[in-house]
């Protein structure tokens, strides 16, 4: 027999036994001891409106709803407080003017249109030119060149 025919025979057996039920019941299969999970002690929840029933306290039972592993510091457990953010960078005068032009031009056009003001041609041109000029100035000043420090070919996420 060739290896191909052996493989074909194995596949035929797999397909033929696809819908067959398992021969052994799962209860007969051994359960590994490493899979056994120790049972936790049951805790009794007492509602404030109910009176707790008198139960004999055994030496192995914890008192009330307390957990012996509880340190009382659950308030801070798992709560992340981020460090304060770094201060915003100081902007120079050309960058400030570019931001004012970028938002000021469309803001003037919007206010003038909502107030139904008559706008001269030079005012429309100035507002549109301020918007375009502010955008271009910010893009040019963006500084998309390589980083000043040489940290290799992979800088990761550089923010």
UniProtKB/TrEMBL annotation:
Positions of the UniProt region annotated as Disordered: 1-91
Keywords (A to Z) from UniProt: Membrane, Transmembrane, Transmembrane helix
Bias-annotated ranges (Acidic residues): 52-77
Domain of life: Bacteria
Biased composition (Basic and acidic residues): 41-50
Transmembrane residue ranges: 97-115, 121-140
Protein name: DUF308 domain-containing protein
Source organism: Nonomuraea diastatica
Origin organism lineage: Bacteria, Bacillati, Actinomycetota, Actinomycetes, Streptosporangiales
